[in-house]
Amino acid sequence: MTEEINNNRKYWDALKETDPRFTKKINKGFGDLTTIDPQWQIMKMTETFGPIGEGWNYTVDYKYLELKEPVVIAEVKVAHKKLANGWDYYGAISSTLKLFKKNGTYDDEAPKKCMTDALTKAFSHLGLCSDIFMGLYDNNKYVEKLEEKYSNVDKSKVKKVS
Asked: Which among 33, 39, 6, 37 is positioned nearest to 20, based on CA atoms?
């Protein structure tokens, strides 16, 4: 049974740990949140599944609605390649963001921010950065252990694509 559980969690276990060097604490008025560098998340997906378009992929559909105020909704689907059976898509996972900033100006970054948030949510379904989403980053000792672990990473062993 343990072997079956480990196999079922192979992606989760490979992706669950978040390198603290690629996180940031922010406060949105209701407590501290840990944010994750989206480019680091894309790198982790690439490390695990291969280059985008070959080993993993995503689609995004935008909807623009006028509710109490104009919003953009990004619906993403993420896929990873199965060995012989094509792509395994899941989602849609969505995020919603206001199109105008508090000062009334148009936020031309809103669609991109909305897509990034939806991708982060979708990636979490595979286990990516699950330590943050499961509250482990609220434990200082847990984060200190990760900081120590990742501060010892030998940067000379990072492979460069030629």
From this structure: 37
**pLDDT of 162 strictly over 60:** no
The yes-or-no verdict on residue 9 having pLDDT over 80 is yes
Structural domain boundaries, residue 15? 2-153
- How is residue 80 written in tokens? 């990873």
Residues 54-86 have pLDDT tens digits of 999 999 999 999 989 999 999 999 999 876 678
**Positive or negative: CA dihedral 79, 44, 107, 102:** positive
Q: How far apart are CA 101 and CA 80, in angstroms?
A: 35
Chain centroid to CA 124: 6
Which CATH number goes with the domain that contains 130?
3.30.390.80
Q: What's the number of CA atoms in the CB half-sphere (13 Å) around residue 52?
A: 10
| pLDDT digit string, tens, across residues 117-128 | 999 999 999 999
- Residue 15's Cβ-side half-sphere holds a number of Cα atoms within 13 Å equal to 25
Q: How many domains does the chain have?
A: 1
Residue 40 belongs to some domain of the structure? yes
Q: How far apart are CA 131 and CA 124, in angstroms?
A: 10
DSSP strand pairing (87-98 vs 70-81): antiparallel
- The reply to whether 162 falls in a domain is no
